Structure formats: structure tokens, C-alpha cells
Amino acid sequence: MRGARVLVIGSGGREHALAWALARSPHVATVFVAPGNAGTRWAGDETRAPAIRVPLREGDLEALLAFAREQRIDLTVVGPEAPLAAGIVDRFQEAGLRIFGPSRAAAQIEASKAFAKAFMQAHGIPTADFRTFSDPQDALAWVRRCQRPLVVKASGLAGGKGAFVCETPEAAEAAVRQLMVERIFGEAGGTVVIEERLTGEELSVLAFTDGQSLAVMVPARDYKRLGDGDAGPNTGGMGAYAPVPEVSPDQLATIQRTILEPAVAGLAARGTPFMGVLYAGLMLTPEGPRVLEFNARFGDPEAQALLPLLENDLLEILVACAEGTLDRMILRWRPGSAVTVVLASAGYPGPVRTGLPIRGLEKVAGMEGVWVFHAGTEESGGQVVTAGGRVLAVTAVGPDRTSAAERAYEAVAHLSFEGMQFRRDIGWKGEHGR
Questions:
Q1: Is residue 346 classed exposed, middle or buried when 0-12, 13-18 and 19+ CB atoms within 10 A define those classes?
Q2: Is 163 left (phi over 0), alpha (psi -120 to 50) or beta?
Q3: What does the alpha-carbon distance between residue 76 and residue 10 come to, in Å, rounded to a whole number?
Q4: For residues 240 and 302, is the Cβ–Cβ distance under 8 A?
């Protein structure tokens, strides 16, 4: 596919990383990003494909479809979950356009936690014991009877912030009220899943799939809590690293055999084959791996740690998935580790101020083995300013996790904006900095 024209849909750090990886393919002529961010123009370099912003909202499916037709886009790559849940893949495929991502029906594995839990139960995929509720009074009554630590989750999409880890029944009751009565995440909290709290280390295992074959990526670990030592509220993700050397090849094979393969086979058996990136968020319990959640796309910030390690041409992998030929692909990974540190606005994961100048980007631009993936950024008055909660993701690679972390934090020290907050323990020492 020489001279390919590629469209990436989304505006965050994950989409910047996807555009960056695709722009380095010798098969790609142009990368468009809709709507992109202030970092989009740095996704390409002078020797490869340019990256161009397109002022279209990621939820405007008809406008995106019209753009893909007009610009003769060879492959569209969907970054975030919302367009997948809205059926963008179905719409493009109906129009005869090649697109990477699961159908609306297959994306339910992320878009509805109630669906995902029932699906796992039906297909013997190990997960936590759970109950699903659509009536807040029934949910509150069950919480009061449990008297043990619980996790309360909005069934719908909540931007990675809809899970409440509750140590006490009172905390679980408060979470139910916030989701189901106060509707802090709108309709996403109309149905909730309440499950037992599992203990162990968390792990992210992602795989490319064409609906039948799987190509499993190296395992990654992300940091969901806002503060050092896993303190504070859940966020969309404050950092990540890959690979996770403590996970043995045998453990990864077990995860593939007992979790990923049954999920892909189960979705195919329903008549809704899953093509795209299947993400399994896991807890490594004493009894073995258990699924916390499935996602229907690359994680953010896992993508920013994984893609710099991938040696394959990303375009070739995505086309193989779309064409059903993934079984011919073997993933190759550069040696060493990648560590990603997210820089967030003051107030995140709640309301934030925007429009604040970002300083130091030019100092980091020349650092070898370091990339700054933009998330919540815009350009104003000739400078880059903040435009969201998670602002930048700084990724560094090194021969091991410690050296990669040192390099990432060296780069972070050059960057600043008013109220900037970040974790200082990403990738350090033991798991989650402990």
C-alpha cells in the first residue's frame, strides 16, 4: 500500500502516538488527525509523512465519512471508545471504506460493563463475582448486606473515571448515589456493576486481532490513581511502563489461552467478530489472572509506552487486521523498556483551567529516546497552551525500566505550566513505586 493516506480519529495522547507511529511507515504518504491537538504537526518528520489536523469532531460520524471519501483515505484508525460505541466502524464498512476497529456490537465489551460481565460469565472467562443493578434502591440494599470491600462501576462509558474502589459499605453507598442518583456521568451510571474487590498487581495485556487470530503485545502496567503510592482518585491514567518483566512467558500464554482467545472466539460465535485492539485490564490474584475490564481499543497511556517499542510497521499490522490476514504477522519489539509519565492540569480528574502556556517543549524536542505526546493542548497566539485534564505524556526508552524512568523524569524537569501535577513514582523500584 505505497502512498497510503491515513486518517486517525481522536484528540488525545493515544492518537498523537498512533499518528507518530503511522507517519514513520514507508508506505504512508499523509496522516490526517481529526481533530488532533497542538502536537499533531510534530507527529511526522521532514523525511516521512506529514501529519495534518482536520477540524472535525470525533463524534461527527457523517462528516468524518464524507472527509474520508473526499480525501480518498486508504485506512481510518479509530483511537477513542466513543466513536466505536456509536458505530463508526459499521458506517464506514457499509460505505466500502477500510477502517481499523470493532463494530458497534463488538465494542459493547467496553461500552457496557453489564454486557461484558455477563459475556465473561457465559464464556468462562475468569473475573470477579458481581451483581448488576438498574435500580438504585436495589443496589443500596445489596451493598448494605455485603459488608466487605467492593468496587462500584458505571456500566457505560465514563472516560476511565467510572470505577470507585470502596473500602467500606458507606463508601460503596456513596458511589452508588453519585452514579445512579446524582448521575455524575450521566446515562453511563444508569446501570451499575458492583463486584468484589480483588487484590494483587494490575496488568494490561493488549492484542491485535482480525476476529480470529491474535497477536499479543508485550504486557504493560498503568497507574490509574492520581497520586504517588496509588493515593487519590481514579483517573484516565497517570503513567505506564512496558514491558513488565515480572510476567513470565508462561503467565502471558495462560492469559492468552484463558482470557483473550475465549473472548475473541465468544464474540465471533455471537456473530459479532471483534477486529481491532482488544485490551484486557487484569488483576494478578493469588488464584490467577482475573479480568477487571475489557477495552475495545488501545489504552491511554499504554499506547504511548507500547508504540515506541514496536519494531513492526504499524500500518502493515492494522491492514492485516482489517483484511483478515493477521496470522501472517509476527510482532517484533525493541529490547529494553519504555516509561510514560503523564502531566496533568491542576484539579484533574475534576474541572480544570485551560489556556495556560506550556514551557520547555523546545528543550525536550532534541532529547534522544524521548517523545512528548500531546493530549490536552491547543495553539493560541503562537504558543502551545493547555486544553484539558491530561496535557502531555512524556515517554522515554532505555535498556531497562530504571534507566527509562530516569530519562523520562529528566525530560519532565524541563516542562512546566501553571498547576502542573504528575506522579513521581512511575516505573521506579518495585511495582507502582512501592
A1: middle
A2: beta
A3: 11
A4: yes
Cβ contact 294:109 at 8 Å: yes
C-alpha cell, 109: 465489551
Say if CB 191 and CB 156 are below 8 A apart. yes
Residues 280, 295: Cα–Cα separation, whole Å: 7
How far apart are the C-alpha atoms of 187 and 9, rounded to whole Å? 24
Do residues 171 and 256 lie in contact, with contact meaning Cβ atoms separated by under 8 Å?
Answer: no
What's the grid cell of residue 122?
A: 457465559
Q: Are 58 and 10 in contact (CB under 8 A)?
A: yes
The CA–CA distances, whole Å, from 311 to 203, 308, 369 equal 22, 8, 14
Query: DSSP 3-state assignment of 27?
Result: coil
Counted residue by residue, the chain has a size of 434
Give the C-alpha separation, 192 to 177, whole Å.
Answer: 11
Please give the grid coordinates belonging to residue 190: 444508569
**What strands lie across the sheet with 51-53, from one edge to the other?**
51-53, 28-35, 4-10, 75-78, 99-100
Residue 220 is given by DSSP the state B
- C-beta of residue 313 within 8 angstroms of C-beta of residue 332: no
pLDDT of residue 45: 58
Cβ 69 vs Cβ 93: under 8 Å: no
Residue 51 has a CB neighbour count (10 Å cut-off) of 25
CA distance readout (Å), 272 to 79, 89, 113, 291: 20, 12, 17, 21
pLDDT of 430: 45
Helix (H, G, I), strand (E, B) or coil at 226: strand
Q: Is the per-residue pLDDT at 46 higher than 80?
A: no
- What pLDDT, in 10s, does the model give residues 18-38? 999 999 999 999 999 999 999
With H, G, I as helix, E, B as strand and everything else as coil, classify residue 67.
helix
Amino acid at site 274: F
User: Residue 228: pLDDT above 70?
Assistant: yes
What's the longest Cα–Cα distance across the chain? 63
Q: Is the peptide bond preceding residue 349 cis, with omega within 30 degrees of 0?
A: yes
Distance CA 39, CA 379 (A): 9
